[in-house]
Design goal:
Elements lengths: L11 H29 L2 E6 L12 H20 L5 E8 L5 H14 L3 H10 L10 H12 L10 E4 L7
Parallel strand pairs: 1-2, 2-3
Helix pairs in contact: 1-2, 3-4
């Protein structure tokens, strides 16, 4: 869920919806699963944050706030569970080609009277120096690393998969 507009015109109901989906739901799910993870003496919690948990973009106040909150929650929960076999981390994708992103490419193409491919390169290139969306496979591989039993010392990180977006 995304809603873009300046903060002074941002609808309260959209704020609440974005916070509920991107932050509160993670709290409730995490709280519910930890007892079972403690019981089995093992667990891996991998939150899907966003590059917007590390940096901000204009007109995305709720999404940016929720994703920054998610990274803070990830770190705090990792600390709470530091003396267990439960790890908590976040993956922070940049642009990933999804149906929601495709709609943004199509809207830009229509607005600027260019091809969808040209719009895609423009949109992605504005933020990601690689000018390419990350693949869902890249995100899955980052999660696979964090889920591995051998990743026991990797805790409380926010792992960008962002085509150098945050390197700038």
């Amino acid at each position: 869920v995304q809603h873009m507009c300046p903060i002074d015109t941002f609808p309260d109901d959209k704020w609440d919806q974005i916070m509920a989906l991107n932050l509160s739901s993670v709290f409730h799910t995490t709280k519910a699963i930890i007892p079972q993870m403690r019981k089995q003496d093992f667990g891996r919690i991998i939150n899907i944050a966003s590059v917007h948990g590390l940096i901000a973009s204009e007109n995305k106040c709720a999404y940016v706030a929720a994703k920054h909150g998610l990274i803070g929650f990830t770190k705090a929960t990792a600390l709470d569970l530091a003396n267990t076999n439960i790890t908590v981390n976040a993956v922070c994708p940049g642009w990933v080609h999804t149906p929601l992103v495709q709609k943004q490419f199509e809207a830009r193409a229509a607005r600027e009277n260019i091809s969808v491919d040209e719009a895609s390169q423009m949109v992605v290139g504005e933020k990601m120096p690689t000018r390419k969306c990350a693949s869902s496979e890249e995100i899955a591989m980052a999660c696979a690393y964090l889920a591995a039993k051998s990743s026991v010392s990797t805790r409380g990180i926010a792992l960008p998969v962002d085509g150098c977006w945050t390197a700038q």
